[in-house]
Design a protein that fits this description.
Length: 287
């Protein structure tokens, strides 16, 4: 399976769903005109990130949400991944991404790991997701994650062992620190290392789409990536600027990587499960 993916590295207007939806429309049309079959947007792309008390106003019920239905029914027939605040039936609010295609919301991933350290305070405003499932799409089996999820290696591991050929991560990653000679952001370097590790050790394509711009003094650096199953970076977004990044995804490369380096095949899931259960029991007793 071959297809063209577009990474929509955009800025967003905080709390302005109408303006952000129009921007998504523009990007999807532009990507479709360039031959892309799938467009991926950053974390909370429909609402902006630092919502705080605006969370309630930005929340969407996927069953009746106008922006999601509108984007799913785009005339280009291009699938997309968008970030939004999901309102559940019992009025919990989740930092989520939705996979939209063929006029419908086909899959939703709720962010599992909500950071509360440093500048982050997500757990104050969002509920944490508690499931991790792949999605069967017209492109093949895909996995979806949101930002902090990736820093817990169990998430990509579980998606790979559910058959994901590509893992897509939507980010709102701030720019922090410097590395080396000072011409490379420390946070960008860390994300690149993480992305290459996730792709190579799980033999999957790994895609990160980070936003740009400022919110309340917080700067988002962009630097979106496409990494192949060997850990090679095949596409990269600009730093600090909006960008629309294109790459060809060819799942035959996953096939060849897994034949040459059969890490998933040789993984001992029974051993992992047994030892995790033991560690969990021992930890419970200690606490």
């Amino acid at each position: 399976m071959k297809f063209k993916i577009a990474l929509a590295q955009i800025n967003t207007k905080l709390g302005n769903l109408e303006a952000n939806t129009r921007r998504h429309d523009e990007i999807i049309s532009q990507a479709a005109a360039a031959g892309a079959s799938l467009v991926v947007f950053p974390e909370l792309s429909l609402s902006g990130y630092l919502l705080k008390d605006l969370t309630l106003d930005a929340a969407l019920d996927p069953a009746c949400a106008g922006p999601l239905k509108h984007l799913a029914a785009n005339e280009t027939q291009t699938a997309c991944v968008v970030g939004f605040v999901e309102q559940s039936q019992d009025f919990k609010f989740y930092n989520a991404v939705a996979y939209l295609d063929a006029g419908t919301v086909q899959h939703i991933h709720r962010k599992i790991y909500l950071p509360t350290y440093g500048m982050f305070d997500e757990k104050r405003f969002f509920a944490a997701g508690d499931t991790l499932r792949t999605a069967d799409t017209r492109f093949g089996r895909l996995g979806f994650l949101v930002c902090e999820d990736i820093w817990h290696f169990s998430t990509s591991y579980l998606l790979a062992h559910q058959g994901a050929l590509m893992i897509v991560a939507s980010l709102a990653g701030p720019g922090r620190g410097v590395r080396g000679s000072g011409d490379m952001l420390g946070s960008a370097t860390s994300w690149e290392l993480l992305a290459r590790t996730v792709a190579q050790f799980n033999t999957v394509f790994f895609v990160t789409v980070n936003r740009v711009g400022f919110e309340d003094g917080l700067n988002f650096f962009g630097g979106s990536l496409v990494v192949d199953p060997y850990g090679n970076i095949v596409a990269r977004g600009r730093v600090f600027d909006e960008d629309l990044v294109f790459a060809e995804i060819d799942f035959d490369l996953v096939r060849r990587a897994r034949a040459q380096v059969p890490l998933l095949r040789d993984e001992k899931l029974e051993l992992t499960l047994r030892e995790l259960e033991r560690v969990s029991r021992e930890k419970f007793l200690l606490e």
